[in-house]
Write a sequence for this structure.
């Protein structure tokens, strides 16, 4: 049984062991309880400085990390690079070194370049958490997704999940594929052929271009946001056609199991990849995902700073 | 493990008698069991707290609620050598405001666990008072903390290890002291 995370950083689920994933999920249960108190604070990371540096815009993830740090009594600093030295041309490594000179204890980074968090993790002595790097990984999102599933279903092994949408450009999909496979789940991915990466079967997933077939009898449907910009790139003809062929609506949902869970990492395009009825319906755990995001992020902050 | 010499200092019956006496002392000092709540420190403190609760029920006919407190998030050695961040959930499904809290743990040693527990409880509300009950007091306090109720005083040296075994967790009941 893991008693401490072995790695210094959390960069992705591809290299994380199932044992560590389990440990993070278990830790998050206790953290969730803190968020349910009147005084949502514990002194655990008092005096620790956490820097969130987001090179890509984000409200949800950044706020979630900020709240997580504050609930653990850490001092949280947010840097959004539109208003920073990066705009003046500072390199990633220089930014990293300059921040280190102010002695932070942990860094959370989101960047559009794959591997940027790893560069910082390898050059800096403090723990680094990847909050999303390009289309590569978004580990805390997948962890909160696994946690949310486990919370409702009791356990993960043997469950069937379908991830639907623009898989090619989705770091959420990739991290979830790795995480779900490690925890013994069966994973199906579905989307238009233009949005499915080549050789993706090598990750151990079943590939579908017919979403009705993909969601037949599944326990979990995870819808991904279709980026409206992709439309202009000729990857699908129109939002309406996408919605008709791949969007989740009440009629389509019936193909899944009766107690199916509907998930979405957010933000949603209502009426495009998911109908309002389904998003706000009784099977949706989309808001639980957000709540659990804080608990998971509290757990990873605690485990990275509390371990040796 | 065989290098250790160990001796049982309290057997199952001894534990039972000590808990019965502690339950009576609690009733005596608090003039009954009304408005009391029990909070056990995870994890063995919780089993002991439940045992005390059932004795209080027998003696006074009062159902005293029992909560479980995990103090890991309040420890003063987080991030240091030897700290293992294994969390168990805090579960205190009742308000502590204005109650007399009986805090229960298996072994009282340096007092740091109790200090963390006090912070943890006070974060949940303002109790009227907190009293401390422990099964074993092994001395060597590092903080000014003292118990209100003690099962057994056990003078020990720092190189010794005191282990309380309870059937709810370890399959049997007994207190063992061992030395390298």
């Amino acid at each position: 049984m893991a008693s401490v995370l072995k790695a210094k950083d959390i960069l992705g689920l591809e290299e994380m062991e199932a044992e560590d994933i389990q440990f993070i999920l278990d830790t998050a249960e206790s953290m969730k309880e803190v968020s349910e108190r009147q005084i949502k604070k514990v002194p655990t990371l008092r005096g620790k400085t956490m820097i969130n540096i987001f090179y890509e815009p984000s409200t949800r993830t950044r706020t979630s990390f900020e709240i997580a740090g504050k609930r653990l009594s850490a001092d949280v600093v947010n840097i959004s690079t539109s208003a920073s030295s990066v705009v003046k041309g500072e390199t990633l490594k220089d930014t990293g070194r300059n921040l280190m000179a102010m002695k932070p204890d942990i860094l959370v980074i989101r960047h559009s370049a794959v591997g940027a968090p790893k560069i910082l993790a390898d050059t800096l002595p403090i723990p680094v958490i990847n909050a999303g790097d390009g289309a590569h990984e978004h580990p805390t999102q997948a962890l909160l997704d696994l946690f949310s599933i486990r919370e409702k279903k009791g356990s993960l092994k043997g469950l069937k999940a379908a991830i639907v949408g623009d898989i090619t450009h989705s770091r959420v999909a990739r991290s979830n594929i790795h995480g779900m496979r490690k925890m013994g789940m069966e994973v199906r991915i579905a989307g238009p052929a233009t949005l499915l990466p080549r050789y993706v079967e090598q990750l151990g997933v079943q590939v579908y271009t017919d979403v009705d077939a993909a969601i037949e009898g599944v326990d979990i449907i995870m819808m991904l946001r279709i980026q409206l910009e992709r439309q202009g790139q000729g990857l699908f003809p129109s939002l309406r056609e996408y919605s008709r062929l791949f969007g989740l609506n009440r009629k389509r949902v019936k193909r899944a199991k009766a107690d199916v869970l509907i998930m979405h990492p957010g933000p949603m395009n209502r009426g495009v990849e998911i109908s309002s009825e389904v998003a706000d319906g009784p099977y949706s755990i989309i808001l639980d995902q957000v709540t659990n995001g804080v608990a998971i992020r509290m757990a990873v902050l605690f485990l990275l700073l509390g371990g040796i | 493990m065989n290098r250790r010499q160990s001796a049982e200092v309290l057997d199952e019956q001894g534990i039972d008698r000590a808990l019965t006496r502690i339950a009576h002392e609690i009733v005596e000092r608090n003039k009954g069991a009304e408005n009391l709540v029990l909070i056990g420190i995870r994890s063995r403190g919780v089993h002991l707290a439940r045992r005390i609760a059932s004795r209080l029920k027998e003696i006074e006919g009062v159902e005293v609620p029992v909560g479980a407190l995990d103090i890991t998030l309040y420890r003063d050695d987080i991030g240091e050598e030897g700290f293992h961040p294994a969390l168990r959930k805090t579960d205190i499904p009742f308000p502590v405001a204005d109650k007399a809290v009986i805090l229960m743990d298996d072994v009282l040693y340096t007092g740091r666990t109790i200090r963390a527990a006090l912070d943890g409880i006070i974060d949940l509300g303002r109790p009227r008072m907190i009293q401390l009950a422990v099964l074993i007091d092994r001395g060597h306090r590092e903080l000014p903390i003292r118990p209100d109720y003690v099962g057994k005083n056990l003078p020990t040296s720092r190189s010794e290890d005191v282990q309380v075994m309870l059937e709810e967790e370890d399959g049997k009941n007994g207190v063992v002291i061992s030395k390298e």
